[in-house]
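Friendly challenge for the regulars: who can give me the structure tokens for this chain first? No prize, just bragging rights.
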Amino acid sequence: MRRMALKVYGAARTRTVRTLWMMGELGMPYEHIPITTQDGANLKPDYVAVNPTGRVPAIDDGGFVLSESMAINLYLAKTYGGALYPATPQGEARAWQWSFWAVTEIDKTIIEWALHSSVLPEAERDSKRARAARLELERPLEMLEGALAHTLWLAEDRFTVADLNAASVMYRALWMDLDDKPHARDWLRRCWDRPAARAARAMRE
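First reply, four minutes later:
Bragging rights claimed.
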């Protein structure tokens, strides 16, 4: 019996871009259903049946339904990714660590910084909020810089889901001045210069 293609729900301009990047790295066929949150499509019964929270992304892998972008990417890397998933328990733990770090220490604050630095119309920006957000990011960014001082990648000696998950959350830092954190800056550029990352970014932009 032919296996159905994995389904990815969510528009590329949402956190779904993280999973679209992963699918590009995997090079496997999938069906993209670009559910948006702006028009309320995420709250319609068909999608709420997939993810009751109405949030994106979500995937359906042959009847196995999963939400939350970090969990999705960790699952996909472990199931289909080969070298994308760390080979050791220690590397696996690092992948979890940096995935959790990204969503707890970076995600919300970097969005705040981006909104009030460039995304919002100029009349709606608050420079104080932008500065406060950037200051709040300093400690986690210092942690990242330290972790990369003697290695090119976060979990093992190659690009893995740890790097993908962390770099995908840090997308907006591509426009941030990180010259005082050269290891973090160069790592972020290496990650986003990968062909699958460039393809996902093109879908987003």
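The mean pLDDT is 96. The chain has two domains: 6-83, 86-194. Your move, everyone else.
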